[in-house]
Amino acid sequence: MDTDNKDNPNPTILNASDLPTRQRDAHAAKRPSLFDALTQDAYPNYATTDLSSPEASDDSDSDSDPREEIDEQEIYDLISTISDPEHPTSLASLAVVNLPDIFITRPASSTSRLSTVKVLLTPTTAHCSLGTVIGLAVRVRLEQALPPRFRIDVQLKEGTHTTADAVNKQLADKERVAAAMENGTLVGVIRNMLATCE
Amino acid sequence: MSDIQQYLFEVDKNKSAAKDVAQNSARKLESKELKLINLITDLEPYINAKDDAARRSNSIGYLADVLDAVSPRVLSGQERRLLVDFILNRLESDTEGIGSSARALLALERLGKWDSTLAQRVLQTFVDHANPLKQFKLQSERYAILQLIDLLMAKYRTALQSLHDSDANLLPSFIALFEGEKDPRNLMIVFSVLQVPLAEWDVHAYAQDLFDAVFNYFPITFKPPPDDPYGITAQDLKDRLKGCIAASGECAPYAFPALLDKLDSTAMNTKRDVLHTIQACVVSYEPKTVNLYSVTLWDALKFEILAAQEEDLVNEALKALALIATAFSTGMDGPLTAYLRPIVKECNEHLEDAPTTQSRAAGRILHAVSSAAPVVADRIVKGILPTLFTLFKSSESIAKRRGLIEVLNEILKAYIDMHASGDALILEGLKSHSSDALEVMLRATVSAPKAEVSFRLASLNGLVQLTAIPKLLSDEEVERTVDAVTDMVLHEQTAGHGDIRTEAIAALTEMAHTVPDTVRNKAIPAMMVDLPDSPSDDTSYKSTLEALARLSTETEIFDTIVVRLKSRLSAARHHQAPTSYQHALLLALLYAFTYGSPLQEDGAVRSSYFGDYAEPLLALIKEAAPGSRDSAETEIVGRITNILLRSQTPHFQSTVYRTSLQRLVDEQRTKGESVQSLAPLSLHYFAALRPEVVEPTDVHNLLKTLGSLLLDGANSDASTSVLLRHITLLVNKFLTPKTMQASLQDAGLDVTPLLAANPTQQQIHISLAITKALILLGKTSALTSTYLHVLLDLLPAASTQTAQAFATLLAPDALLSKVNHCTVSPLHKQRTFALLTPSLLAALKTAEPSRKQPYLLALAGILQHIPYTVLQPSLLELVPSLLQVLDLPTSQSTVQDVKPPILAILEAALLHDPDTLSEHASSLITRLLTCASPPLKSKSSAPKAPNTTTVTTPGSQPPPSVNSPAVRAKALQCLTLLPTHLKREVVLPFRRQIIRKLVPSLDDSKRSVRTEAVKCRGAWMGMEEEAAE
Question: Where are the residues of the annotated region Disordered (chain A) (predicted)?
């Protein structure tokens, strides 16, 4: 881990305002209005006579709304803030993690609950020695943050890395991932990378 | 024993006794008991004691102490002269006691001014016979000499300068005198002494020696001892040293190379000192001297910016670059050209591979240097913009184009900064590119792909700047710009990523400040077109109206906007447009008056707005039949009235009260029905009035009417709330505290009888409203406490609704504020907390578990409005009840609403007083986990996948829960704090269990809850890693 001799000393860095963010639901009933602050009665009204008509009915955050499924953007938000091991910037602004390279496969049949998340990473250079570490960090992050009904598949994007196959094999091998996480130095590096995750 | 013998006897044992002896001698001299000649004669054997240096030194100390104590005019001029001669002559052969000699000379000078020759001789003697000072080991001796020299420099400056002029050998010895000084107090004087020859004498031949003498101390690394009695800081020394280095341009040939050499240091503090010193030198040396080093300086300073290390160093380097340009900005054309040439060349090179950190740095350099003076900016523009536009046109890369526009924006910003500080801009260079710039930016904002957010934002920002530079664009160009931005505001319909309407509105608002006429004549009419007289559907006008309302924050166009809104409102009424549209227009007006920038006079909103806006609206409401009044409209009009009326003078208000609103009040007095329909207006209207303006009888009658309306009538929930707030407002604001109970009885609103037997909901709510008014008033403590206890007595049999209504007592109400002339006691929350909590807690202790709910709800209602600092001292007693609140059943959603504020209190407690919660850790964790657990999914999705690691075996499933998402998220936030805020040994045992139980929350149906669950789980997982170390 020779940080003085970086693989790519001057990578392109994306502007933060160009990164994808969650789009508002197109069919969401209403956009918050500028005048809401004026119309909302800030004063609580306990003088209601009918208890069965809870105020929460118009609250967009109640459980009566349809379930918000875990989607690609949510996966992106989980891993985009991981820091690069050799630059003090996020994987998203280095374009290592890209929204179009995240795929969720829903359960194939009604009897299975198993979904798959596939994340393709784009290393900053084709011979970046830290590809494995980044892949491992993404994998660890998703394992911690996703419910167990998701299968996680992290790979280097085809054609972006000279040793992509070897790295992918390593990332897909549960035993080897587990073994890697026994390595104290590696755990330390990954913890530092994940420290910037919200 | 003579005085000198006595002095010598005391001096080594008791300094102050020795001083007394000397003072005694001085007194004797004054009273002529002792003659100076005798004193000297007495002194002679000791001062000449050949074998005893200490004795010689002490006897000269005696002389110094005597002279120090003697009053002016005791010694004649001749005597003083003789003494000076005596001391100086002595120094030539014996420097023992030299500090005392200096002190004696200082004392003599104080007794009478010297002539030039004498001053010269004093200096010469010290230079010749005390050189170098470091031979005297005692700091105090050197300090006295330095004080003497400092005095000579201050008072006999011309004499010393002429000495220097006549004697070329003086300066080198003078410089040598101070060599090797290390004491900070002495150095402070050395630096200030050396600054005189540097700044004023012709030092050409010895400039290097002088410079070396001071630069030896660079950089200052002095760190004062912790209890330094002298109060000298490193900064003091740095400032004096900087003053010396910057004092003479003669030093430039040595100073700049030496400083730049130190700039390569790895110590940030040294770099910082170098940059500050370079700035001082550039400012103080002659521009023609700076000229010789300008390019060298650029070559060194640029690295500090291009390879930025620390932000403040970058800023200091930029400042230094700008100061060099400033030095050449007045008539130094050649030097300016020579300085700017390499800067322009280098920055142009960095532009070629924009956007990089270096192109951004180039932008900062150009901004800093351009800001130096208009003439500099003009040169920069002529040097940079041709390249910039060539690069722009030859590249298709949007990222590159964005980088170039960002650099251009930096340069434009310099123009705006200079304009703001009052400089007359030179636009020659910029004008020849302004059309190019405008075209490029217009095209970017209008036709670039919507997803290129940063590119479009940079261009939008550039457009704002172009219009802000006066006389740069033609009127037609300004119009096109305003049109383009208006068009974005009106017609861009991008949802989510790529939506830059908010920024476009902000840009238009800024343009409204710099080019108000164009915005007034082009943008606002264009926006008004989008506001029809009667729209067909609800959504078409909404965003335009919001944009218009936001623009009202710019004073220049405020009046135009409200006039247009008003006329559109009357057109809408005329065409019987949908009420939702009319409400929206009214809300836009309200927004403008609330958050916009209406014109002011005498520190208040201009009073004519009331006549122009509030009165016509009020008239309309009054004219309408009570049955056809729309309560929402009545309320908005009431709020507009409130905001325009409340800050007006009592005189203005009472005119309004007596004339235009008289009928309103009359009407209220007579017809109950109309009171109800006017209540939303009346509430805000009475909130605006100053107490002294209103007739007490009006208040009494109104209270009576409101009370009976509430008690008899079946009102809708909304109108009940308005009527209750109205009662609170009137009681708090207009009733006299002394006669409070009588006034309330008179109005039929005394709380005790109201609640006497089986009170109805309405009676309870009125009682709470009145008690709330009294709590806020804070002047009727006996009555308040009686009322509160009557209310508490309701609790054992109270319904959920009644118990929750206790929250109204302290709930904030924006109307009950000082701007509305209400009385708001600063301690009302503390008092109420102190009065209610003990009773509630006591009742909770004894109550049956099944009867606890009303108490818990009431307690939660009170606590949620109490600042944490107030309840913190009682935290220990409160925690069990807080935890019980979390146990309240989840079946009623209104009951759930009390949980988030309670969780917020627990969160604050975890942050500030974790130890109090430690002993409750186990029960806290159980409750938080229960609150956090997500709703169970329907059974069909239940089958367990074989290879997942879930542990939700049927037996250990959490109890069914429908805690709201807000409760779940907040509970997870609290849980997140535990590992970092409670003691490790307290929480570690729960770690495994919690990480396991949080798994279902990772699959919560709400995204916001999932996010919190991820954070929470991360916090707990982080614990083990610490343990592994």
Answer: 1-68
- The domain spans of chain A are 71-194
Q: Which token pair is B237? A: 């020394």
Residues of chain B in contact with residue A54, where contact means CB-CB under 8 angstroms, are: 892-894
Q: B834: Cβ–Cβ under 8 A, 6 or more apart, which residues?
A: none
Query: B93-107, B226-240, B665-679, B790-804: which range is least confident on average?
Result: B665-679
Contacts 24+ apart (CB under 8 A), B1011-1018: B1011/A198, B1012/B968, B1012/B969, B1012/B972, B1012/B973, B1012/B976, B1013/B932, B1013/B972, B1014/A78, B1014/A144, B1014/A145, B1015/A198, B1015/B972, B1015/B976, B1016/B972, B1016/B973, B1016/B975, B1016/B976, B1017/A144, B1017/A145, B1018/A144, B1018/A145, B1018/A194, B1018/A197
Q: Name every chain B residue with its beta carbon within 8 A of the beta carbon of A41.
A: 721
- Domain positions in chain B are 740-866, 871-934+963-1022
Reported confidence tier of residue A106, pLDDT bands at 50, 70, 90: confident
Residues of A in contact with B899 (CB under 8 A): none
pLDDT, residue A16, reads 75
* The residue type at B462: G
Query: Tokens at residue B97, please?
Result: 């006691």
Cβ-defined contact of B453 to A17 (cutoff 8 Å): yes
Search chain A and give the residue with CA nearest B949.
Answer: A148
Q: Which CATH number fits domain B871-934+963-1022: 1.50.10, 1.25.40, 2.40.50, 2.60.40?
A: 1.25.40
Residue B997 has pLDDT above 50, yes or no: yes
pLDDT at B942 over 50: no
pLDDT at residue B255 greater than cutoff 90? yes
**What residues contact A42, with CB distance under 8 A and at least 6 apart?**
B812, B813, B814
Which residues in chain A are closer than 8 Å to B495, comparing Cβ atoms? Answer: 23-24, 26
* pLDDT mean across residues, chain B: 88
- Rounded average pLDDT over B293-305: 94
> Is A5 touching B (CB cutoff 8 A)?
no
pLDDT at B952: 39
Sign of CA dihedral B888, B891, B895, B897: positive
Gap from A109 CA to chain B (nearest CA, Å)? 12
Question: Cα separation of B189 and B903, whole Å?
Answer: 63
A61 and B964 within 8 Å at the Cβ level: the answer is yes
pLDDT tens-place string over residues A29-59: 345 566 766 665 545 555 543 333 333 333 4
A148 chain-B contacts, CB cut-off 8 A = 945, 948-950, 999
Instruction: Name the one residue in this structure whose structure tokens are 């109205």.
Output: B726
Alpha-carbon distance B497 to nearest alpha carbon in chain A (angstroms): 6
CA distance B874 to B916: 10
Q: What is the predicted ipTM?
A: 0.87
Contact yes or no for B717 and A48 at CB 8 A: yes
What would the pLDDT profile of B422-435 be if each residue is shown by its tens digit?
A: 889 999 999 999 99
Look at B87-91, B97-101, B736-740, B959-963 and tell me which has the smallest mean pLDDT.
B959-963
As a whole number of angstroms, the distance between CA B1009 and CA B1000 comes to 11
Instruction: Judge: B807–A112 Cβ closer than 8 Å, yes or no.
Output: no
Dihedral over Cα of A74, A80, A83, A86: its sign? positive
With bands split at pLDDT 50, 70 and 90, how would you rate the model's confidence at A160? Answer: confident
* pLDDT tens-place string over residues B875-918: 999 999 999 998 888 777 677 788 999 999 999 999 999 888 88
**Residues in chain B within 8 Å Cβ distance of A26:** 495
CATH for the stretch A71-194: 3.30.300.130
Smallest Cβ distance to A111: which of B943, B1006, B1028? B943
Mean model confidence pLDDT for chain A: 75
